[in-house]
Amino acid sequence: MSQPITASLKALKLHLQQNPVDIRQKLSSETDRFDRFNLCLEDMLLDFSKCALDEKTVALLVELATAANVEEKREAMFAGERINTTEDRPVLHVALRAPRDANFTADARNVMADVHRVLDSMRVFADGIRQGEIKGKTGKAFTDVVNIGIGGSDLGPAMATLALAPYHDGPRLHYVSNVDGAHIADTIKALEPETTLFIIASKTFTTIETMTNARTAQRWIVEKLGQDAVRDHFCAVSTALDKVSAFGIDPSRVFGFWDWVGGRYSLWSAIGLPIMIAIGPRNFEAFLAGGHAMDEHFRKAPLEKNLPVMFALLGIWHRLICGYSARAVIPYDQRLSRLPAYLQQLDMESNGKSVTLDGKDVACVSGPLVWGEPGTNGQHAFFQLLHQGTDIIPVEFILAAKGHEPELDEHHNLLVANCLAQSQALARGRTREEAEAQLLAKGVKKDQAKALAPHRVFAGNRPSMTLLYRQLDPYTLGRLIALYEHRVFVEAQIFGINAFDQWGVELGKELATDLLPIVQGRDEGSALDTSTKGLVQKIRDLAQ
Ligand SMILES: O=P(O)(O)OC[C@H]1O[C@H](O)[C@H](O)[C@@H](O)[C@@H]1O
């Protein structure tokens, strides 16, 4: 960690010690607090007035971003420098959502022509499927599309398809990711091979889960429709075009992308093909435009007015200065139910590391645990811990001012009221005196009120942010995802780590490969550790 970052963190810690902010008290004494602690991009607003900070905190956080050279590093990313040093690659997912005439270069070559060539061919293909012009082997239009992929080749498109359901006017979409045979079995049992198209989505085209599911899907099609049906019923998305053709997929049905697109940043690329098939090319373009609008803002807005930068700095405040080990993402939007899972990969696979860019141990903690569920469901499950548990977990509430069901306004009003009530409750809490007074007002006897009151105390002063926008349309989803992507980037600069590799997923993969022959019974596994050996034996016994 550089000396300026260390000094900045020290100043922030000192400020926290010397000027602790009581959120509850500030919310009642500072009537202009909301105006002072929010940031906007168009209709999208980040309210952080319910965090325990003051103007000095914000100023010190901005100094921290400067100390970490965030602006310089951001420009290095946009300039196509090889900032993913451990894989020796540029990081240019921002080019995927830029207009045709933009200028993004990787290895001194403008990539925009390639980006738009693939987008154009995706458009033609997606339209062909949507309009029923591209048909299955027996001449029937496709009614169902199954995307087979995992991690970045699944989570983004699956999350976005659900999020944009009101715009979904193409064939039905299904996502198969897990190597557990139950996933593909349950998916295809309701489908007709004649009207089903498979998209095999894998950046590397080597991922064992995806390849296993792809072969099962291939067998299903071949058994029902014959070997020559593979050509009509499969297409692929990958950077490894040679491996795709070895699988037998028609080269005209392969949509490429590039090694400068990280898997968890790839839903803007051809990996977004299922989204485009679902919502149509125009809506997909609006999604890209939303991402691009956030990129422009991230590049141009001064640090203190910069939404992704401030969002990141607030994350750093909670993680590095206040010491909170988790963050909860609670979308008050059922259609964002897969957003927490998507963000888990984006954030935790990017920033869950213990080694800095130069190979040294990180000087402090790095990325937090990210988790969540949609509200209001979460309220009836784990919110108990958020309000009264011994850990403080900052919450990120996500809310649209407007739903897509005007006839169900009553539902939306309840959703909004609940979302606001939760952040209020976290901040405000309830004192023992208040709890006691409430019980007495309800006619509970004095002794009993005294005994019950401690159980009804909410400490309060628990931080939350609210991300609010007009409506969850494709453009807004684009802005939302790009906002989180850039936040992860900015946080990584402060941690001093590479946000774009994922070596931590390798060891388990290697060991699974070694274990397979033992599980299959082809190898005794005599060299196994005692625990794993015992489990293998027990599995064999139980499976008899
Ligand atoms: O798209 P693929 O090459 O099949 O990779 C799918 C996923 O698998 C890997 O294990 C990585 O951890 C992910 O970052 C990646 O998104």
From TrEMBL:
It is found in: Cytoplasm. GO terms for cellular component: cytosol. It comes from the Bacteria. The active site is at 349 (proton donor), 380, 509. Pathway: Carbohydrate biosynthesis; gluconeogenesis; Carbohydrate degradation; glycolysis; D-glyceraldehyde 3-phosphate and glycerone phosphate from D-glucose: step 2/4. Its EC number is 5.3.1.9. It catalyses: alpha-D-glucose 6-phosphate = beta-D-fructose 6-phosphate. Its main location: cytoplasm. GO terms for biological process: gluconeogenesis; glucose 6-phosphate metabolic process; glycolytic process. Belongs to the GPI family. Catalyzes the reversible isomerization of glucose-6-phosphate to fructose-6-phosphate. PANTHER family: GLUCOSE-6-PHOSPHATE ISOMERASE (PTHR11469:SF1). This is Glucose-6-phosphate isomerase. It comes from Limoniibacter endophyticus.
